[in-house]
Amino acid sequence: MTHxxxxxxxxxxxxxxxxxxxxxxxxxxxxxLPKRLVLLGTQVAMCVLAAVLAVLTLTGDxxxxxxxxxxxxxxxxxxxxxxxxxxxxxxxxxxxxxxxATSLASSVFQLGAMVGPAATGFMIQAVGVGTAxxxxxxxxxxxxxxLLAMNPRDLxxxxxxxxxSGDDTTPILSILRSRNVMLPLIIAGxxxxxxxxxxxxxxxxxxxxxxxxxxxxxxxxxxxxxGSLCGALFSASRHGNGxxxxxxxxxxLAGGYGALGLLTxxxxxxxxxxxxxxxxxxxxxxTIAKVQLSAPPESLGRVxxxxxxxxxxxxxxxxxxxGFVDAIAGARVGYLVAGAVPALVLLGIAVVNRxxxxxxxxxSGRRRG
Length: 369
Description:
The chain is mostly helical. The protein contains 14 helices and no strands. Helix 8 packs parallel to helix 13 (300-329) and helix 9 runs antiparallel to helix 10 (214-237). It is globular. The chain crosses the membrane at residues 6-25, 37-58, 64-80, 101-124, 130-150, 181-204, 216-234, 246-263, 269-291, 303-325, 331-352. It is found in: Cell membrane. Keywords: Cell membrane, Membrane, Transmembrane, Transmembrane helix, Transport.
């Protein structure tokens, strides 16, 4: 409608702003009210917003300000939906399946976020924007029907908070000080700067480095999606999710990003993007699962609200940053920066948590984490 990349970025910012402002309080809603009912309400609200956009587009009445208003409304709904959806996974399964279920749920969501835009692009070409928006609105019938079909007695609800009062602040701060919560949050924030913005650098590689167009861009993003699918399946089948494993995956992903900056041909870049897709999914699902399993069930909504706040806030900051680097120094430097920043963060984590071999009495020992 505008042919203005800044306007597109502004719509994204409008969607992110509510979470940046109210992310924690969105998690409080999921801790106070039954999460199934909360999700049912958010899915209905998202369906209505999608339907409004579809009708406006099909009738030719859509205006730029409509898109901004609908984007802002979607952002407000997401404030409540994201943490409640993450926390609801724990209520759906028994304690012996939480680890696999959280990984599977996170994998499905992240994979959809990667594959969805590509599928939508083909759909727009095939049936048009208005029809694509209509199908998007209709797709909300699936989660609404599933939520309605659930038997609340089969769920595993946790003790609910009666109110969101100030005395909840201290427990949350205590939870955040736990290594099992804080370290995954730090890792998620450092990689969140660049992981959601990988398509930006791939686009720069396609157009500037290889002087190609949408065909190569689609192929490269498809390679990332295939790697993400493999990473999702592997993550969902795993039983272990320790901090050491998460740290190793994060270190490999940082190295993988750095290696992309050294590749000079489309074939080499495609080969390098596959393991990056695998490791991206392992890191994302690993951080989410670790936080979910480490936070007390009665506070899980608020903790996941903070996780979403960290991830989304870093992505909002990283988008302009990596776009600026790609524009000034090129896509290869963009890949290097995307690997170097998390690598420095991981190095800092390793230094702070290194074993302390000298105890006060002169004997060797380890500092307990």
